[in-house]
Design a protein that fits this description.
The strands form 2 sheets. Strands 3-2-1-4-5-6-7 form a 7-stranded parallel β-sheet, sandwiched between helices. The protein has about 400 residues and is α/β, with parallel strands linked by helices. It folds into 2 domains: about 200 residues, Rossmann fold, CATH 3.40.50.11720; about 180 residues, 3-Layer(aba) Sandwich (Rossmann fold), CATH 3.40.50. Helix 8 links the parallel strand 5 and strand 6. It has 19 helices and 14 strands. Its EC number is 2.4.99.12. It comes from Ancylomarina salipaludis. Involved in lipopolysaccharide (LPS) biosynthesis. Catalyzes the transfer of 3-deoxy-D-manno-octulosonate (Kdo) residue(s) from CMP-Kdo to lipid IV(A), the tetraacyldisaccharide-1,4'-bisphosphate precursor of lipid A.
C-alpha cells in the first residue's frame, strides 16, 4: 500500500508537470514548489517557536481562519507557519497578515516530509478539514508532535473504514485529537478504535459571522433595490447561469438581480452579459446612477461577494450541477432563503438548512422557476425562510472556542 501511495504521488506530480505546459494553475503549482525547501529554510532560520496550520485551498483556509486568528491572539509568543496545497489558496493569501510565514506544501514524499518537519520543528500542528498526507503525518507521529484536525467530517464510504484501508487508518494515529462536525464522524472513528474525538462543529459558522460583522458597505449598492426584492446569484458556473438567465429573460416579476460568477475572466463575463436581454451593467467602473438604472448587475471582479449578500432578499448558490455547491453560509447569515442545485449531499450545512426550511434544492429549470416565483410573491414565506437560515448560523457558532479550550501545550 505504501508503494502504491508513493506511486500515486509520483504520477500526480508527473501529470501536473505535463498540465503546466498549457494550464496556468498547474504551472503555478509547479513553480511555487521550485527550491521550496531552501526557501523555507532561509525564511524560518533561527525560529524556534513555530505552530503549523495546513490548508488544502482557499475554502479550507477561510474555514480555518477563525482558529488561526484566535490562536494568534491567545498565544502571541508563537509564530504561525501556514501552508497550502493549491495555488488558489496560496496565491490569494500569500501575504496574509495574521500569520508569519506562508508556503506551498512540498510534495508528500518521505524525504520532503522529513526535511520540512526538521526545518520548522513545529510545537503543534493543525490540519483544516481534510488533507491526510501519509509521510507528513507519519513524521509528526514519530516526532511526537501534537497534531490536530478540525472541522472535519468522516463518511462511511471513505477508505479509512474499508477492509483494505489499513494504511489510511494508520495515518489517523498521528492525530492527537479530532474535532469533528457531526455525531456520525464520532461513531465512525470510535468504530475503528479512536476515542480521541469530540464534537466541536464547523468553524465556518464563526468565520461567516465575522465576515458579516465586518462586511464592506458598498455605497453604489445602497439604492440598487429601489424597494424591489433583490436576487443574488453567487459563485455561479455556466449551468447555473443558464437557468438564472433564462429566468431573468422570461420572468415578469420585479426582481432586481446580481450575478457574481465563480470565474470572472473576460470571456466568461462576456458570455453572461451577451445572454441577458434586460438592462444590465457591469460592476467595475459603473457609476451609481448606472447601477441604479440596471435590472441586472454583473459582478466582473473578485472579493466583493460576501459584502454583496447584505443587499439581497433571496440567494442562489452555484456549483450544484458540478462538483458541489459553494458557500451557502455567507448568504444564510444575512437571513435570506438559499437555493442551489442537486449536488449538495456532501455538505452538512446544506442538508441542515433544507431540513429547517432555510434552503431548497432543485433539479431542473421548472422547479427553479417555481421557487423564484414563490419567494417573490409570498413575502412572509421569504422572511420566515430567511429567519430560519440566520438562526441556524447563530446557533451553530462557537467551534473555535471549543477547539482552543481543548488543545494542550
Amino acid at each position: 500500500m505504501i508503494l502504491f501511495y508513493n506511486l500515486s504521488i509520483f504520477f500526480y506530480t508527473l501529470l501536473v508537470r505535463f498540465a503546466s505546459l498549457f494550464n496556468p494553475k498547474a504551472k503555478q503549482w509547479l513553480d511555487g514548489r521550485k527550491s521550496i525547501l531552501a526557501k523555507i529554510e532561509a525564511a524560518v532560520k533561527g525560529e524556534s517557536n513555530l505552530v503549523w496550520f495546513h490548508s488544502a485551498s482557499l475554502g479550507e483556509f477561510e474555514q480555518g481562519r477563525p482558529v488561526i486568528e484566535a490562536f494568534k491572539k491567545k498565544h502571541p509568543d508563537y509564530k504561525i507557519v501556514l501552508t497550502f496545497f493549491s495555488p488558489s489558496g496560496y496565491e490569494i493569501r500569500k501575504n496574509y497578515g495574521d500569520v508569519d510565514f506562508v508556503f506551498y506544501l512540498p510534495v508528500d514524499t518521505k524525504r520532503n516530509a522529513k526535511a520540512f518537519i526538521r526545518l520548522i520543528n513545529p510545537k503543534m500542528v493543525f490540519f483544516i478539514k481534510y488533507e491526510f498526507w501519509y509521510h507528513y503525518l507519519n513524521e509528526l507521529r514519530k516526532n511526537e508532535v501534537p497534531t490536530y484536525i478540525f472541522s472535519t467530517i468522516f463518511r462511511p464510504k471513505q477508505i479509512f473504514f474499508k477492509p483494505y484501508g489499513g494504511l489510511y487508518r494508520k495515518i489517523l494515529n498521528a492525530f492527537t485529537h479530532f474535532f469533528v462536525q457531526n455525531q456520525e464522524s464520532i461513531d465512525l472513528l470510535k468504530g475503528i478504535g479512536f476515542e480521541n474525538v469530540s464534537l466541536a462543529g464547523d468553524t465556518r459558522f464563526d468565520r461567516v459571522y465575522s465576515i458579516a460583522k465586518q462586511a464592506t458597505v458598498l455605497p453604489q449598492l445602497e439604492d440598487f433595490a429601489q424597494g424591489r426584492p433583490v436576487m443574488i446569484a453567487g459563485s455561479t458556473w455556466p449551468k447555473d447561469e443558464e437557468h438564472i438567465i433564462k429566468y431573468i429573460n422570461a420572468s415578469k416579476t420585479d426582481y432586481k438581480y446580481i450575478i457574481a460568477a465563480h470565474e470572472v475572466d473576460e470571456n466568461h463575463i462576456s458570455n453572461i452579459v451577451s445572454a441577458i436581454e434586460k438592462p444590465y451593467v457591469r460592476f467595475t467602473n459603473a457609476t451609481k446612477a448606472e447601477i441604479d438604472a440596471a435590472e441586472v448587475l454583473v459582478v466582473d471582479c473578485i472579493g466583493v461577494l460576501s459584502s454583496l449578500y447584505r443587499y439581497g432578499d433571496i440567494s442562489y448558490i452555484g456549483g450544484g450541477f458540478g462538483r458541489g455547491i459553494h458557500n451557502t453560509l455567507e448568504a444564510a447569515c444575512y437571513g435570506m432563503p438559499v437555493i442551489f442545485g442537486p449536488n449538495y449531499h456532501k455538505f452538512k450545512e446544506a442538508k441542515d438548512l433544507i431540513a429547517l426550511g432555510g434552503a431548497h434544492s432543485y433539479e431542473n429549470y421548472e422547479e427553479l422557476n417555481s421557487l423564484f416565483d414563490f419567494y417573490h410573491d409570498d413575502v412572509d414565506a421569504r422572511k420566515k425562510s430567511g429567519a430560519s437560515s440566520k438562526n441556524y448560523v447563530d446557533e451553530m457558532r462557537g467551534a473555535t472556542d471549543k477547539i482552543l479550550y481543548t488543545i494542550k501545550f
